[in-house]
């Protein structure tokens, strides 16, 4: 909120693009801290052929998510990146059953949750949480922060299956404030009394209240100043290392994705067009769309563009192009691209791309 006080944690001048292994306050980057181990054979989250279609007037339909399959391993950070309107947020909400998918399958901890009733899904809510983009709209402005954070602790039983006592809840609230670097006095204040970065810390604390394993972060820093973005990304990284969390991190900013993600999936018009280890995908993009996105990231060096920039606007998902969904904007389009839709195929170990003519390694 304009004019709201900022905590010292929100006053760093560091640029997230320039972050290396450690942030401005010595926080370790998630990419250097916690990766899926070789012994982790079972995915924490699996998605198979997931689609979400919205019915529109006049018999039209909008396919926001189109046949996505992926695995998220314990302890990894999967970055979902793409332009606005590509389906990233819808996919994130479908993963947690905040929005029901039209078709496909979602497995969490090996359990099929795709069609579970709300009653059957409720115990699982403790282990899968979401941090939303709009930190202010996510908080009830009429309730104190302490009440907002205490609500999930009152609704869900403790690890022993019993209702938590007021003393236990108070102790947990103090722990949460320490985790997100806010003073305990914040519990007695209202959302409008905080800055945007502080409110996002509160939302993170609420997501962590029940000690989840999986956190879906939906553009959690896009509405923040660059200096505050760096602090919040560092907080996500520290919490991942400290608590052993797994993230699906939704963003349109490749600089943020590069900083925190161990693996990245690039989405375009509802589908994943490239997926692989973050450094491999961003330094050696195989899809023209990924290459154009990486080229759009500001760089201090001066020189010619390595890849042609994006041209035109993203087509309407209501009238998706035939063949390759990117062919209307692709600088290297061929006749085959206009009629035949490519599927994800490996270009290197652990690196898949949906392109008939993938870019050569560079």
Automatic annotation (TrEMBL):
Alphabetical keyword list:
ATP-binding, Nucleotide-binding, Transport
Classification via SMART domains? AAA (SM00382)
Query: GO cellular-component terms in the record?
Result: plasma membrane
Note whether Transmembrane occurs among the keywords.
no
Q: Name one GO biological process term.
A: peptide transport
- For the region Disordered, give the residue spans: 1-37
Domain called ABC transporter: residue spans: 45-294
Q: Which GO terms describe its molecular function?
A: ATP binding; ATP hydrolysis activity
The record, for Pfam families, names:
ABC_tran, oligo_HPY
> Gene3D superfamilies from the entry?
P-loop containing nucleotide triphosphate hydrolases (3.40.50.300)
Q: How does it sit in the membrane?
A: Peripheral membrane protein
Q: Where is this protein found?
A: Cell inner membrane
Compositionally biased region (Low complexity): 1-16
Note whether ATP-binding occurs among the keywords: yes
Q: What InterPro entries is this protein classified in?
A: AAA+_ATPase, ABC_transp_ATP-bind, ABC_transporter-like_ATP-bd, ABC_transporter-like_CS, Oligopep_ABC_C, P-loop_NTPase
> What family, per the record?
Belongs to the ABC transporter superfamily.
**What protein does this entry describe?**
ABC transporter ATP-binding protein
């Amino acid at each position: 909120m304009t004019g709201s006080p900022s905590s010292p944690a929100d006053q760093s001048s560091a640029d997230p693009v320039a972050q290396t292994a450690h942030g401005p306050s010595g926080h370790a980057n998630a990419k250097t801290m916690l990766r899926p181990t070789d012994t982790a054979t079972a995915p924490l989250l699996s998605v198979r052929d997931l689609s979400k279609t919205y019915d529109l007037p006049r018999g039209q339909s909008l396919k926001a998510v189109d046949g996505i399959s992926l695995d998220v391993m314990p302890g990894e950070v999967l970055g979902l990146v793409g332009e606005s309107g590509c389906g990233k947020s819808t996919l994130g909400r479908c993963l947690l059953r905040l929005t029901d998918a039209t078709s496909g399958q979602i497995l969490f901890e090996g359990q099929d949750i795709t069609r579970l009733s709300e009653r059957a899904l409720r115990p699982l809510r403790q282990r899968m949480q979401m941090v939303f983009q709009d930190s202010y709209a996510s908080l009830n402005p009429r309730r104190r922060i302490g009440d907002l954070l205490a609500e999930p602790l009152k609704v869900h039983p403790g690890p022993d299956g019993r209702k938590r006592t007021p003393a236990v809840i108070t102790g947990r609230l103090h722990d949460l404030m320490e985790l997100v670097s806010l003073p305990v006095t914040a519990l007695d204040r209202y959302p409008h009394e905080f800055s945007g970065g502080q409110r996002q810390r509160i939302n993170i604390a609420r997501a962590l209240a029940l000690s989840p394993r999986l956190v879906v972060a939906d553009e959690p820093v896009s509405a923040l100043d660059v200096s505050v973005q760096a602090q919040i990304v560092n907080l996500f990284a520290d919490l991942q290392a400290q608590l052993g969390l797994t993230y699906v991190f939704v963003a349109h900013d490749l600089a943020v994705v590069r900083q925190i993600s161990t693996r990245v999936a690039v989405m375009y018009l509802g589908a994943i067009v490239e997926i692989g280890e973050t450094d491999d995908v961003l330094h050696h993009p195989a899809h023209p769309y990924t290459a154009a996105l990486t080229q759009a990231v500001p760089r201090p060096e001066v020189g010619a563009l390595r890849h042609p920039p994006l041209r035109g606007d993203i087509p309407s998902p209501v009238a998706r192009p035939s063949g390759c969904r990117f062919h209307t904007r692709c600088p290297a389009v061929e006749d085959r691209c206009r009629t035949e839709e490519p599927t994800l195929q490996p270009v290197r170990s652990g690196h898949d791309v949906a392109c008939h003519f993938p870019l050569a390694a560079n």
